[in-house]
Design brief:
single chain, about 250 residues, mainly alpha, about 0% strand
């Protein structure tokens, strides 16, 4: 009980620093959920495209085959780019957490020294400091979740446009205008491009409307991965700094 009381009291005492961490944690949660939602939408659209391809058996020519292969690879590349961007976000979070913990633990040197003089172990002190940050992260995630409930469908719907743009860039570098025109002409003759939105190649609104197919995703993954990234980065900085400060205190005594 006293451990938790000290933790909550420390959050209140260092509220300015933790307000900054709260804002940073919210930014991480928002970016993570947007990237994971974009990846989910991209995966969904790619699967829908593959389902449409199953209708083309025996009805493609060389031009349409080239275009369809480029589109298929374009969806896959786009999905991989979102995945790499998310892992980049996790890596940046680890580095920022390490830097924040290192800076903050140095600012709390006198507080740490008082704890050490009272006989508390570096493990107990580090655990308290880490728990403070984890509580702030959970609060930031909860705030992001509430925000997602309010505007999640709207945000998810607007993510379709950048996905279309990114897919267009991925395809345009591999498909000539002549091949695209030939493919469209050939497939229109077989009435195979009468799909929602812009047809077979570029994704249109998912069946049932935007809100049904573009809800925000990745909440649990964001909570778990963000918590681990924060804990990993801060733990390295905290226990390294605490060990160094305890060694200095023993040496001066």
């Amino acid at each position: 009980m006293r451990f938790l009381e000290r933790t909550l009291s420390a959050i209140g005492y260092h509220r300015r620093a933790y307000v900054g961490e709260f804002i940073g944690a919210m930014l991480f949660c928002i970016l993570s959920i947007i990237l994971l939602t974009s990846q989910s939408i991209s995966h969904m659209l790619r699967q829908e495209f593959l389902n449409r391809l199953s209708q083309l058996a025996g009805q493609t020519n060389s031009a349409s085959t080239t275009v369809l292969t480029a589109v298929k690879n374009g969806y896959l590349t786009l999905n991989q780019q979102y995945q790499l961007a998310w892992w980049g976000l996790i890596g940046a979070t680890v580095l920022l957490s390490f830097s924040f913990a290192l800076w903050f633990s140095r600012r709390r040197a006198q507080e740490t020294e008082a704890y050490l003089l009272l006989g508390k172990s570096t493990w107990a002190i580090g655990s308290q400091y880490l728990l403070e940050s984890l509580l702030i992260f959970v609060l930031a995630f909860m705030a992001t979740s509430v925000l997602g409930l309010l505007v999640g469908s709207l945000v998810g719907a607007h993510l379709l446009d950048p996905i279309r743009t990114a897919l267009g860039r991925a395809i345009s570098s591999k498909v000539t205008t002549g091949n695209l025109k030939q493919a469209v002409t050939h497939l229109f003759q077989h009435q195979l491009t009468g799909f929602s939105g812009e047809g077979l190649f570029v994704p249109g609104p998912p069946p049932g409307g935007l809100n049904q197919g573009t809800q925000l995703a990745g909440g649990f993954t964001t909570l778990l991965a963000g918590g681990l990234a924060l804990a990993g980065g801060q733990a390295l900085a905290l226990w390294g700094q605490l060990w160094h400060q305890k060694r200095q205190l023993v040496h001066h005594q």
